[in-house]
Amino acid sequence: MARYSDLNLDFVAHPLTGDVTVLTDMEALKRSIRNLVYTSKYERRFRPELDAGVRKYLFEPLTSITCLKIKNAIENIIKQQEKRVELIEVSVSGNERTNSFDVSIVFRPKNVRDVTNLSLTLTRTR
Mean of the per-residue pLDDT values for the chain? Predict the structure, then answer.
């Protein structure tokens, strides 16, 4: 039995039942963390104050200071909002070739020994 489960927000239909598929365990936690990192203020209907604060740094120079600010913002949102995981490490590096930030989030689900790595690329969109 799955410990954690969330709806698949891609709304992919289950091939047999036609219902929306469900993400379980690690995939559910990865999706939840990814959604938290990408969330900006007023994007969530009943939680308008929820804001990772990452997007405001995407148009800043690719410096170590900007990377540190993004790292702190990601750590704060995960620690505040995702109580199902223990955050181990967040690392952020600027990629000058693609003008983006590469993010690595290492976490462990509570009461589980397995450590998982989630890699994201934060890019500017207009």
Answer: 86
- 87 bridge partner residues: 107
**Residue 83: CB atoms within 10 Å:** 9
- Residue range 69-77: mean pLDDT, rounded: 97
CB under 8 Å to 121, separation ≥6 — which residues? 95, 98, 100, 101, 102, 103
Please determine, for residue 100, whether its predicted confidence score (pLDDT) is greater than 90.
yes
- φ, ψ of residue 31 in degrees (nearest 5): -65, -40
Residue 4 φ then ψ, to 5°: -125, 140
User: Which domains are assigned to the chain?
Assistant: 5-123 (3.10.450.40)
Residue 118 in tokens: 């989630």
Task: Give tens-digit pLDDT for 113-124.
Answer: 889 999 999 998
Higher per-residue confidence, 25 vs 82: 82
> In terms of C-beta density within 10 A (0-12 exposed, 13-18 middle, 19 or more buried), how is residue 64 classed?
exposed
Residue 63 φ then ψ, to 5°: -115, 170
